[in-house]
Specification:
Elements: E1 3-9, H1 15-27, E2 31-37, H2 45-52, H3 66-72, E3 78-81, E4 99-102, H4 115-140
Parallel strand pairs: 1-2, 1-3, 3-4
Helix pairs in contact: 1-4, 2-4
């Protein structure tokens, strides 16, 4: 049975959506990924574009509220907050018996500069999230040596 993982950030518009997609892509046979936000907004177009560039389409995803997820009564083995350190105090806490982890990533919605600069920064954030998910999957789902 797959373990459920909930990724949480403030808006559920970029970081948590990317983390959810990467977990599904990298070790979806072991985990069932979900995401939510404290103040759900709309999907960040930069996140959608940077994920599309590597063959993952998140454009159909809807943002959702942590409160709505909580009200559903769904239980999660892991709740992972992906808020950056500057907004960590606003990053929601999900109650219940679960393992809580915090992985700090910059929030693409706070990026400034030209479109190209913000896109380049979103690429870096995307790659940081992918690397962290890959590392976690390696830790959680070790491949058995074939003898």
């Amino acid at each position: 049975m797959k373990q459920k993982v909930l990724f949480i950030c403030v808006h559920n518009s970029a970081g948590s959506q990317m983390a959810e997609a990467f977990l599904d892509d990298i070790c979806g046979d072991q985990f069932e990924a979900h995401s939510a936000g404290l103040e759900p907004g709309t999907l960040n177009p930069l996140a959608v574009e940077t994920m599309r560039e590597i063959g993952i389409d998140i454009s159909h995803k809807q943002t959702q509220s942590v409160f709505d997820v909580f009200k559903s009564g769904e239980l999660f083995a892991y709740v992972i907050t992906v808020c950056d350190e500057t907004s960590a105090e606003r990053c929601p806490v999900f109650p219940g018996v679960t393992r809580r982890l915090h992985w700090s990533f910059p929030d693409p919605s706070t990026l400034r500069g030209t479109y190209e600069q913000r896109l380049a920064s979103t690429h870096k954030i995307r790659d940081q999230i992918r690397a962290r998910i890959e590392k976690w999957c390696d830790e959680m789902c070790p491949v058995e040596a074939v003898g």
